[in-house]
Amino acid sequence: MSAGANKFPILFLGGAKRVSVGRMLEKAFADRGYEARFFSYEIDPRVPVACMARVVQGLRWSDPAIYDDLARVVDEFGIRMIVPFVDGAVDVAATFVERNPAAGVFLPGADAARARTMFDKVEAARVFEELGLPVPPTWRPGEPACFPLIAKPRRGSASKGISVIDGPEALGALEGRMDDYIVQRYIADREEISVDCYVGVRSGEVLAVSPRRRIETLGGEAVRSITVDSPRAEALVRRTLEATGLRGAVTVQLICDRAADELMIMEINPRLGGGVVCSIGAGADIPGMIADEALGLTPSPSAAVPGTEMCRYFQEVIFKP
To answer: What is the pLDDT of residues 176-223, one digit of tens each?
Structure first.
C-alpha cells in the first residue's frame, strides 16, 4: 500500500480475539484501494487484537457514560465504521450510531430495537412465533409441563447457565426466578447448525447464507467447524431474515430434531459469529460485503463451498512491562 493510500479507520467493540476477522477486513479494504486502520475498544489493553490494532481502553457496556466516551474516540481517531463482536457491544454500537447520525459512522448490523429483541430470548421466541417461524415449544408458568425441558438465561450467551429440567422438582427450583429464563422443550436427539449471514444494510438483500456445523467448541465458541450443504437450512434462514428485517452481519442458530425431522430456530445473534472465518474461508465474502457498504459501493452476493473445514490454533501475543 503506497504512502498516499486512503485511510479508513475502523473501531472494533470487544474485538479482543478477532485477529483473523481483522486481517480479512484489512485485505478486503486493501483490494479496494484503502488502508484499514484498526482500533479496538476494550476493558483490558492486553488482548490479542493488540497485535494489529491500537487498543483503546474504555468503559463497560453498561456504563451510562459509554456513549460520550465513544463519541470522544470516534472524533479523536476519525472512525468511519464500528464493528461489535460481543453481545453487549451490539446494542451499544447501534444506539451510538442512531444517536449520532452526523458522525457518519457505518455499522454493518441491526438497529438497536431489533438487536435488543434478539438478545432477549423470551422476546425473540415470541417474535418468531408471531411471524410463524418454527421454534422449540416454549413452556410458560401455568401450563402443563412435558419433561424434559431446558432452561436458558433469557439474556445469557456462550451456553452459560443452561440447565436441563427432568421433572417437577427441578422446575420448582426456578420458582421466583422464572422471569430470568426461557424454558423450552429439550431436544435430546438433535443437530445444531450455525448459519453465517450478511444482509445489505441499505438494500435489505440477503447476500450470504452459509450453514456450518460446529465440530468442536471451547468456552461456547467454535474452534473446529465445517460448512455443510443444507438447502432446507438456507431456505429457513432466508425466510427468517426477510421476516425479521435484520440487516448486516447475522448469525442464526438452528436446531434439528432428528426424531421428528424438524428444523427450528434456536436463537439469532445480530453480529459476526465467532466461527464466521469458516464461512469466509469457504467463499462467503462477508468482509468484502462490509467493505463495499462502508465505502458506498454495491456488494455482490457470494456463496460458501460446502465441506470446507476450519480449525483454530493458539498463537501468543507478548506484552512487556
So the answer is: 888 899 999 999 999 999 999 999 999 999 999 999 999 998 877 889
User: Nearest CA to 230 among 261, 195, 204?
Assistant: 195
Q: How far is CA 213 from the centre of its chain?
A: 16
CA distance 17 to 14: 8
Look-up of cell digits 421433572: 167
Which position has the grid cell 419433561?
Answer: 147
Long-range contacts, stretch 143-148, CB < 8 angstroms, 24+ apart: 145/171, 146/185, 147/171, 147/186, 148/186, 148/188
Measured distance CA(276)–CA(251) in Å, rounded:
8
DSSP codes, 17-86: T-HHHHHHHHHHHHHTTEEEEEEEEESSS-SGGGGTSEEEE---TT-TTHHHHHHHHHHHHT--EEEE-S
Contact partners, residue 231, CB within 8 Å, separation at least 6: none
Contact 273, 196 (CB under 8 A): yes
CA separation, residue 7 to residues 32, 54, 55, 103, 253 (Å): 11, 15, 18, 17, 35
pLDDT tens for 229-249 read 999 999 999 999 999 999 999
**Which one-letter DSSP state was computed for residue 258?**
T
What does the pLDDT look like over 295-304, one tens digit per residue?
A: 999 999 999 9
Residue-wise DSSP of 169-195: HHHHTTTT-GGGEEEEE--SSEEEEEE
Residue in the block written with cell 415470541: 126
Alpha carbon 99 to its chain centroid, in Å, reads 22
pLDDT band for 4, please (50, 70, 90 cuts): very low
Cβ-contact 111, 247 below 8 angstroms:
yes
- 155 versus 18: which is more confidently predicted? 18
What pLDDT is recorded for position 144? 87
> Cα 133–137–140 angle (5° rounding)?
120
